[in-house]
């Protein structure tokens, strides 16, 4: 390890332009600010003491210290050479009671929002940037329409139109008896049944609006700290990142605008479903020209408001350069209320008496799902073309996931998830309503859900086969890697230790499995390509045949018919089981810590990013955590002129880096960064190259005092940063030995545990590196380091 640089430099000035104090003003305190990772932990565990006290914060996120360290600033002599440890706990931002597992139902929205941030690292002023963002926002809008349409399918079509209109289906369902035409009541008319059932999708849209508004007030309203006037220092253009802009973590106005647009889109979808249901009767059954004219007028209003919604989504963009506190336009704030007014008028129009109207067959408008699927496919293809232009203009393509196609692939998967969730609910609900019959078959009392949903269900088994094949190939690859590296494992330890074949195989297996993380792009690419092909086949089959696969193959060969019927039935059950599994898995994740850590990797990556594309996605915890950390570092260094080491593990290292980017350059130069189990390059740099690519990480290190990163080969999440300092020193310290001892030794009489992603503090290297960082932050070495010429950073071979 290199020795600390003790060359004297000019000291920075304070906010008022005066130096903070002479170098010989006495000992200055050092603070180690700990930030935990995925899964969370308690302040007692982080600080290694059962007696802790809250320093600043609330029950959601706060900083804690040991009770004996609360007044450390008043007695710095007691901490000579040793930092005061302070823990920032943010786990309550992402976890809570089991009810929060319902957020997993919004998984398609979260995945679509991820696609916004996965664009290639092209220059910010590239013309395709704007096109990329618009395409993702429109794609996210189609997911809201799809979810609302699915709720209308369940409530309006399957329940109020088909089942309530069938005496066989209503029999045994007392809660539907008053809607039956045999009952002869006021609600038995088809239009009135639909109006009553429309309350279900309307409540769903209202729930999404409420959740978005509630979390927006709690998360996205945290203000960034003020920056020192005149303390800006420009980096080279290719090393700048939007994460350092003042308004990046303040998305209040953007989320408000998108929330208004998506709420209006959901309400208008319900109104459109009601208008389509009555249009046929008013046009062909002689219900009267007045009703037909009213329906046309309401349809025009729905189209006008839908166009307004699309324009708002089109023109809405993030304002990151500065905090956007301006009030929104009146038309944006009034849009949801206008949509509700049109829905109310539509409900009155639909409930109007129409003698002789019936509800035979499926509800008109079943082709909506096919239209949404085709539109989503076209948007994904356009997104892929746009991403190709951006990737061509990017500065570097090294280690970029899917060569810049990660955004389109993930966007496609969000559409597939939306289709599985909506189709699974509709298929299983229809199967429950018709009491064991198969919806859509000749003998069934119900026509069932749209044919497209049955075709989508029938392709799921084929998709799962492809995923299973890719997973099997990954397992074979892990076995090959294990056998290749097993012979090198004993050489990492003391040659005096006796070789142990079982121990060697165990360590090699853990290393090989940890390396599978780098193969994730292959799985995503294979799933996306197969999903696109099978999805296109499902849409074509539904439009060409007009029947579910089981009926469309009635006259085909017996083997073909049996395979189609089996795929349809199996896929239908898999869709329904997928919805239940998602909810059960999410609920278990918030009760079981081990499950939380397993699932939380992808979940915390997804909810780290602000809601730039979909306002109903789960809230962004970083919009609270990053300002918290930035405020704490800026105010503590300002008040006490002390030394600060920001120590982040796993996802905490990502929060730490984002917080350092938000500091002004003078404060940033007084901070050293210690990361371990860090996914900054391995996950974020590959999947989000525009924000965490090598140039951005190099720029981060240039403007802070120092940075050290610990990593292990056995860690499936963290990895090296792969950068070299200007003076030739590497940021990376590793790979660390894991386990610490190969066999039983004098200091390890019992077999040492393979730590993998956890407990980096158990390695002696951790204390050594931390001590070097604190020594480097001495009074004579707190200065903004000069920015070297571009191209001064390279890649380490690690």
TrEMBL record:
Which InterPro entries does this UniProt record tie to the protein? Answer: AB_hydrolase_fold
Keyword Phosphoprotein found: no
Q: Region Disordered: list its residue ranges.
A: 1-26
| Top-rank taxon, per record | Bacteria
* Keywords, in A-Z order: Membrane, Transmembrane, Transmembrane helix
Bilayer-crossing residues are: 134-156, 194-211, 260-279, 291-314, 334-352, 372-390, 402-426, 455-476, 522-544, 564-584
Q: What is this protein called?
A: Integral membrane protein
Organism the protein comes from: Streptomyces celluloflavus
